[in-house]
């Protein structure tokens, strides 16, 4: 079965050994350097329960920037960090692939360009990137969601590339997906509210079906490809081992990208392809 047909039927692909161990290590090293150099003026917390997010300006202006977001459980009641900053960051986003040369090179390869074309993107644009740490012991759960909720286009073209930079296991919070779940349609959109902040706009009040989810325990160097409509989640990291991953989201430049999407890019740094 071809990759394209398998993807169309299942809503995801698992491609072991897609990137080398050295490439994974280079990304990890650069991310750790960025965290070491980060001196927070704003402490923005990434809540994994998106329905309860209170969107702040730091988050809303991150579409064409490199921003750092802390784990929910990183702080004591008095506001001090429970552990070193390097072990307290949830993720870095959302324009690493455009602003950091190491991430740019990792994200823009002939192999990825060919895969995007094979899966139907006629004018692929690299819209968003995230470095996800899934820290030992405090790496939070990410509840079930569809990526197209946050990166909506008409027609829907969102495509996710998720790279395991370390082995992902049940204990350290691997991905879970619902095979064929992308066929149930988009349930809601995450948009900017006219009065400021963000809101979920319900498109289909039927609850997101989450039965029959399966875990994806994958080795370092694996690429998991996710359909924008596919329900997926990840568990909390209950182990002493981190689960670093790099996530890259693409859309098709031929589709319409609504102005009320939460993620905005400056005209000075528009999304570009490979």
From TrEMBL:
GO terms for molecular function: 2-oxoglutarate-dependent dioxygenase activity; iron ion binding. Transmembrane segments: none annotated. The keyword Ion transport does not apply. SUPFAM superfamilies: Clavaminate synthase-like (SSF51197). It comes from the Bacteria. Keywords: Dioxygenase, Iron, Metal-binding, Oxidoreductase. This is Phyhd1 protein. It comes from Stigmatella aurantiaca (strain DW4/3-1).
